[in-house]
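Now for one protein, fold included:
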Amino acid sequence: MTEPYDLITMGRIGVDIYPLQTGVPLAQVETFGKFLGGSATNVAVAAARLGRRSAVISRTGRDPFGDYIHQALRDFGVDDRWVSAVDAYPTPVTFCEIFPPDDFPLYFYRRPKAPDLVIHPGELDMEAIAAARIFWITGTGLCEEPSRGATLAALEARDRRGITVFDLDWRPMFWGGEGGASGDGGASGAAAMASARPYYEAALKHVTVAVGNVDEAEVATGLRDPKACAQALLDMGVELAVIKQGPKGVLAVHRDGRTAEVPPTPVEVVNGLGAGDSFGGSLCHGLLSGWELEPMMRYANAAGALVASRLACSSAMPTADEVEAFLADR
């Protein structure tokens, strides 16, 4: 095996088709841009932009969009060796509408099934997963088989080595009921949460860091107060709980009693999508650097704010120089 990766992420991959016009309904948009997308993928890109050696475990369709994804990953310096093609399903695409500062509807095209949900346990390089300095999984990866089984098998094989991060990543449209992601509205929000919670709880037994917003933390804990959510996650076995609170900033609580609550970094928002993924990649960078909680949260907030001030997601991920210059101006 080669030298261990700084970060291996596992989860969604696809192509973002984003309007090049803001404040315009999708039905009236005439020009679009094509970008690499998918939350786990964006986190790997964000870390690579900060100088970290990263890789993605995912799957695409065997089509031109799949070819584009491989080229884009290589261009960003992200290892694509574990991104394989599925003959049966097309590469997913995602559209959005951009209504700054806080309305960015997403439209996922993942029919009849997304290839990133067709990751099988037997395909995984468990040795590389166990050796990675950080392994990152997402809630979406738990929504349907065989991805669910592969995700849990990877966590068990890793056995809490190093840093293992669970991005709570709640997308209710992917949890249509007991059988998984129907994506057609399916179960109500409460029923979807009830369907997801046992799998979130199973994953949390194997991770050292949990990160998500209040809605996402509620899926795992049944609670909505940020401090109560953080404590519940610690009680479930994680060492560090990071709760993103939107305009109230971010709360980080460590098992050893350290706590940091950091306000948001003000910025003129262009497109809020991808800010959380930039936060995630920067969080990994800070964890690998051994930073204290408060400077790590400030850095991750700043990286997220930079992406929110830009149009795209993956191609908007900042470099370390950009984040540091941004912080220096604050």
Notes: The first helix runs from residue 39 to 49. The domain at 7-328 is CATH 3.40.1190.20 (UDP-N-acetylmuramoyl-L-alanine:D-glutamate ligase). The chain has ten helices and 13 strands.
